[in-house]
């Protein structure tokens, strides 16, 4: 398969000068050469996301996967998933499954890879070792690679000498010019060896990065590097180059931390005669302090945000905006709209700051954009699973979702919103009024006890509950008459009623709230452990309040607290 791929016309490479066998290019190598990928206009676009299964999917990795996905879909190409599990000590199948699960949750379905298959498999590096050894032997035969028998102690000594001379810690090239007899002698003794790639001693290499523009490196800072370890395991840069080439990857879109790897990979591409892909290195995601985003800044993995109640469409939308924009003020995109708008040319090379507050806001926008029936089902199932309700659907659930949705940014916020509606912290509210609330104190001083007495009378007569039975229209009619009786309207009427009926100074629409509380008390839909205080119990608490003591040491409030608890 590799031979077929290397000969396909999907990409042309221009390298100046040509690599020759080592004994020639060491002498005649020019000081500067450039590597450019030229993609045929009708060539298929193939990109890849290649995570290491050594932990959870970081939001930075998720954004890289997203950019690859969007680029492939916008170009009608293929999105390939490859698992880079050559780190045998740290790689686990559990981590791999978690990464696949997170990508699937985000909706980034791959065209080739684990669980899907494809013509360029296998798609796990651990299953491609025979291929790596085949190409390593090819490089050995061509002279681009040689056996290095240096021990760890010798290599450490080389580093120490380089440090003393204030030189880059590069390999000295001890075995690069060894005679065949010396090599055969070490092989006969069974001395362990690595495969090292010959790097020109002078000159520089340039690439044209699709995001960062022209990038160059001096070759004398590199030194001959290892491509195969002494245990027979291939090194990362060698694996990646062979994989990308044999999978016909046309564009390598990855994090900027991989930019230094491009030098080694470009040398390997040319030595093996493989066509070069185009490279695009995406900036890092930064924390608010502009350091690299890490665990010390809070949640950093996709799985954590999923468990916190974030929606996949909100995560995708927000991650896309970290370093990309369509040139307008619009910030709300569906995945299909992102595919339509995405361009690698609009990806910014500057670092993007991860703002969890903005992500939460964006999640709220997406949550409220969900069709109401779907939203009601989502939140209803949440309420039942967390033990707040005994049922996940029905009129009560729909009314509660309709009432509370504007105050919910995360699905998990719905628990707090419903619990707040069902609770009755009137004693804590009144205590705060008397002690320190400049907003609440005037409510108490404006004859709150008088309003409470009339409210209790309306409850005792059955007038209030009769109105609530008629729904919102009945409530509005009753509250209008109640205000006329007390000669109150506006805030002087509704603020005292809100405090007395809900136990709070603020909240969603009061009439709808009271009707829901009334229905919850009649229908038995609220779980016993939800801490629900029915309207009947609320009036019992109000009846126990000693308003004369309210401005003194608050013994009445302590009594009410006992009853409420």
From TrEMBL:
Keywords annotated in UniProt: Aminoacyl-tRNA synthetase, ATP-binding, Chloroplast, Ligase, Mitochondrion, Nucleotide-binding, Plastid, Protein biosynthesis, Transit peptide
Subcellular localization, per the record? Mitochondrion; Plastid, Chloroplast
**Catalytic reaction(s) noted:** tRNA(Glu) + L-glutamate + ATP = L-glutamyl-tRNA(Glu) + AMP + diphosphate
Question: What is the top-level taxon of the source organism?
Answer: Eukaryota
Q: Which GO terms describe its cellular component?
A: chloroplast; mitochondrion
Chief location bin: mitochondrion
- The answer on whether this UniProt entry bears the keyword Mitochondrion reads yes
Pfam families given in the database record: tRNA-synt_1c
Which terms in the Gene Ontology molecular function aspect does this entry carry? ATP binding; glutamate-tRNA ligase activity; tRNA binding; zinc ion binding
According to the entry, every stretch annotated as the Glutamyl/glutaminyl-tRNA synthetase class Ib catalytic domain falls at 45-361
Identify the InterPro entries for this entry.
aa-tRNA-synth_I_codon-bd_sub2, aa-tRNA-synth_I_CS, aa_tRNA-synth_I_cd-bd_sf, Glu-tRNA-ligase_bac/mito, Glu/Gln-tRNA-synth, Glu/Gln-tRNA-synth_Ib_cat-dom, GluQ/Sye, GluRS_core
Which PANTHER family does the entry link to?
GLUTAMATE--TRNA LIGASE, GLUTAMATE--TRNA LIGASE, MITOCHONDRIAL-RELATED
Q: What does this protein do?
A: Catalyzes the attachment of glutamate to tRNA(Glu) in a two-step reaction: glutamate is first activated by ATP to form Glu-AMP and then transferred to the acceptor end of tRNA(Glu).
Protein name according to UniProt: Glutamate--tRNA ligase, chloroplastic/mitochondrial
- Which organism does this sequence originate in? Gossypium raimondii (Peruvian cotton)
């Amino acid at each position: 398969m590799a031979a077929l791929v290397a000969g396909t016309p999907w990409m042309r490479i221009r390298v100046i000068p040509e690599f020759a066998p080592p004994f020639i290019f060491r002498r005649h190598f020019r000081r500067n050469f450039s590597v450019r990928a030229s993609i045929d206009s009708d060539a298929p676009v193939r990109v890849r996301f290649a995570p290491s299964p050594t932990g959870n999917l970081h939001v930075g990795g998720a954004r890289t996967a997203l950019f690859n996905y969007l680029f492939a879909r916008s170009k009608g190409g293929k999105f390939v998933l490859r698992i880079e599990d050559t780190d045998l000590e740290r790689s686990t199948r559990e981590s791999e499954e978690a990464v696949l699960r997170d990508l699937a949750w985000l909706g980034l379905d791959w065209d080739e890879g684990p669980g899907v298959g494809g013509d360029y498999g296998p798609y796990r590096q651990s299953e491609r070792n025979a291929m790596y050894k085949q190409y390593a032997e090819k490089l050995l035969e061509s002279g681009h690679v040689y056996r290095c028998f240096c021990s760890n102690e010798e290599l450490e000594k080389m580093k120490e000498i380089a440090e003393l001379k204030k030189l880059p810690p590069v390999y000295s090239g001890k075995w690069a010019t060894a005679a065949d007899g010396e090599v055969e002698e070490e092989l006969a003794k069974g001395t362990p060896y690595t495969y090292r790639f010959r790097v020109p001693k002078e000159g520089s290499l340039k690439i044209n990065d699709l995001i960062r523009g022209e990038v160059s490196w001096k070759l004398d800072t590199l030194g001959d590097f290892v491509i195969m370890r002494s245990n027979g395991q291939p090194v990362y840069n060698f694996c990646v180059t062979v994989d990308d080439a044999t999978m016909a990857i046309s564009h390598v879109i990855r994090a900027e931390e991989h930019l230094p790897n491009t030098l080694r990979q470009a040398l390997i591409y040319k030595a093996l005669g493989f066509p070069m892909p185009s490279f695009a290195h995406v900036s890092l995601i930064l924390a608010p302090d502009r350091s690299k985003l890490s665990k010390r800044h809070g949640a950093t993995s996709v799985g954590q945000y999923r468990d916190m109640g974030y929606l996949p469409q909100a995560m995708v939308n927000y991650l896309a905006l970290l370093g990309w924009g369509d040139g307008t003020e619009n910030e709300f995109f569906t995945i299909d709209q992102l595919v339509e708008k995405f361009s690698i040319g609009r990806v910014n090379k500057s670092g993007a700051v991860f703002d969890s507050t903005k992500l939460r806001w964006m999640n709220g926008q997406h949550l409220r954009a969900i069709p109401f029936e779907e939203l009601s089902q989502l939140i209803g199932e949440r309420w039942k699973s967390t033990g707040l309700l005994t049922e996940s659907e029905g009129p009560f659930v729909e009314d509660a979702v309709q009432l509370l949705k504007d105050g919910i940014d995360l699905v998990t916020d719905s628990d707090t919103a419903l619990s707040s509606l069902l609770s009755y912290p009137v004693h804590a509210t009144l205590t705060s009024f008397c002690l320190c609330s400049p907003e609440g104190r005037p409510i108490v001083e404006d004859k709150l006890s008088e309003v409470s007495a009339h409210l209790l009378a309306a409850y005792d007569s059955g007038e209030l509950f009769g109105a609530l039975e008629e729904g919102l229209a009945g409530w509005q009619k009753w509250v209008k008459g109640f205000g006329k009786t007390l000669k109150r309207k506006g805030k002087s009427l509704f603020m005292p009623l809100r405090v007395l009926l809900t136990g709070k100074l603020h909240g969603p629409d009061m009439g709808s709230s009271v009707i829901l509380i009334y229905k919850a008390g009649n229908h038995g839909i609220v779980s016993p452990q939800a801490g629900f205080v029915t309207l009947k119990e609320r009036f019992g608490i109000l009846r126990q309040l000693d308003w004369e003591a309210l401005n003194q040491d608050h013994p009445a409030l302590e009594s009410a607290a006992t009853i409420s608890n």
